[in-house]
Amino acid sequence: MAIAAYLVLAFTLLSGALLGALLLQAFFRRRSGFWPSPKGSREHALAFGLFRAFCGGTVVFALLDWGSLGWDHWSRIALGAPLMLGAFAVTLRGYAFLGIDNTYCAQDGLVTGGIYAYSRNPQYVSSVLATVGLAIFAGSWGTFFLAGALFVLYLLFALNEERWLHASYGERFAQYMREAPRFLDARSFRRAREALAA
Length: 198
Hints:
Four Helix Bundle (Hemerythrin (Met), subunit A)
């Protein structure tokens, strides 16, 4: 691996570690105000700055680490590209369905339909899958590791958001938590099967 790849990996991991530490602190110190935080606040800018640094670093690292997996066959691209692009399309669909303001911590109403009937965090699920697709596409071992780190960050985001959503929407959100999984489980696939059969 070239020195540039090591530097980008170090930057990416540092961004992710700092974000993870701040999210963990917010979870245990409820009054920290780090996440969820109002759009335009210093905390919001810091959270999204670190998150974008992690995600951007992941993409750059995947390109610099191209082929480290040793899987030099067309099937790598045939599997990775559709997974990456399809999952990214679901992420974009989630933005459109939830609304940009709600995506960025507004309280414009609890959304439980559409893709949010399958998962309380479908954009998180699809973003991790898109990163796995990127790892396959690039043939990069390190990018698989970064996909796992992204999942951990999303888990920390979700844990903080659940408390905030419960405080905002009360029993409606508690009921939604009982009906839909945090990420994916058997209910998600059963509902998808039922929707396809209808």
